[in-house]
Structure formats: structure tokens, C-alpha cells
Amino acid sequence: MQQPIRKVLYLAGLVSPFWLAVALVITGSLYPGYSHINQAMGVLGAVDSPTHFISPLITNYPLGVLLVLFGVGVAQRYPGNLLARASGLLIALHGLASIAAGLFSCDAGCAPETASSAQNLHNLAGLVMAFSLLLASALWIFVARRQGSKGLVWFSLVCTLFALGCLPWMAAAIDVGRGFGLFQRVNYFASLIWVAGLAWALLQRERTLHV
What we know:
Helix content is about 75%, strand content about 0%. By secondary structure, it is mainly α.
């Protein structure tokens, strides 16, 4: 793969957390009374949401495309490294799941007594999204160690543990009925910041190789 193409693919990963942050601010501002602290991100695209149409257009779909591109870039960069290649495929899978989560909106309020087929598919896509990036970042603890990149080892470890540590808090927040949105965002952004950090490391390596 040519260097300019690789750079574009890596840049897709680098901008992903910034894209999501801006998209959430925009859609949240268009949803009267929406709480980023207490409400899930999926509520922005729920069938009864005032942002039902726009939310997936500026959040799920473009973010999904960015992560598919970056995942392909990672997999192509390490054709002989099974763990690195697997991480790239997991990142791309995350991107596809993001698109699926946008295509299948959750029901009103995202917490119906009887879930529709779309709600079930939305939940499944969300589950794939959560664990695909978590596993990808965990794999890079070992990939970076083999490469002798201590900084990337620790960065991947911290981001993985941070995202993993938020899961019980998310479950607890569902029980008490508040705080879920906060812990969901911390969990997701921990993984996306890892994506951006890996993208930055790969961009720096490209620069070093072609100086």
C-alpha cells in the first residue's frame, strides 16, 4: 500500500474521538432536555427522539466509516503479524457495528418493556462495539511489547483497563437510574483515545521510515 493512502487511513483513526465529541455536542444541543450524564448515546437516535434522523447521519455512519478505514490500515500495515492484523479486523468490525447501530434505532427511550427486533439488533451492535475495541486495545499490549514500544504498551494497558473498569459502573448506573451516560462516554472515549494514540504512533513511524 502506498504511503499517502496509509496516511489517510491512519488519519481516519486519529480524528475519530474528535468527530464523536463534536457530533455528540451537536446532536445533544438539538435534543431539548437531553442529559449527557444520565442518558445513553443511543437515545439520540431513538425512534421518538427529535434527533432520530440526524444522529446516525453525523455520528454512527461517519464514525463507522472512519474506523473501518483505520482498521483496514492497521491490518494492511502488519500482514505477517497475526495479533496486529486481528486488532485491525476488530477495529473494522467495530466500525461496521457502529453503522449497524445507526441503521437499527433503539425503541422509545431505549428501554422498552418488550424490545422490538430493531432494538435487539441495536443492542447486539452496541455489544460488538464495546468488546471489539476493548479486545483490540488488549491485543496491542502484546503487539507493542514484541515491538519494544514500552510507551505504546503502557498506553494500551491504561486505556484497556480504563474502558474495562467502566463496565461495572455502567451496570450499576442502570440499576440506580442515573449516571449511565457519563460512564458510557468514559468507556467509549477511553477506547477511541486508544485508537487515536495508535494512529498517531503509526503516523510517526511512517514519517520516520521516509525521512
